[in-house]
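Hey team,

Filing this mostly as a record. A colleague (T.K.) asked me to run one chain through the structure pipeline before their review meeting, and I want the input and output archived in the tracker in case anyone asks later how it was produced. No errors, nothing strange. Just documentation.

Input sequence:
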Amino acid sequence: MIISLKNTVLFCGCMTLSSGFFAQEAFVANGNEAQGTGGTVSSSIGQVFDQSFSQTTGTVSQGVQQAYEIFTANITELAKPFNIQVYPNPTDGQIQLSMEAVSFDKMNYRIFDLNGKQLAAESISTTSSTLSFDLYPAGVYLLDVFSNNQSIQTFKIIKK
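Output structure:
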């Protein structure tokens, strides 16, 4: 009985020591940031906190802060309207690329595999073009149509 009591105490001591070594971890569902004349506050939804500070002006709960980055995207609208169709998709070997465009000046297409490797590139000079997928194995490919080196539409092509 004394041996089992020592084993129990030893086991409980090991469990107490091992339970005290945890890293900070948070899985949050959402977050936000708010600004006002009194300052800025970041919030996380779904995060458990264990310490809070209160004053007459408000309460702050301590927790994990997420990185906040601002990105600016430049979106240039194309001046020319395009109506592009690709058929048949899925294909056994060849597809038709047809479009209504005001001008075909500097228009081209590029075919990529899903690893991003460019497989073909050709200029477009008519309203209808036949593209051959005969040399490619069955799989999924991306057909990207460009005007003045700007992508105007991307199609996912399935080769059977």
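Quick notes for T.K.: The two ends are 73 Å apart (CA to CA). The mean pLDDT is 74.
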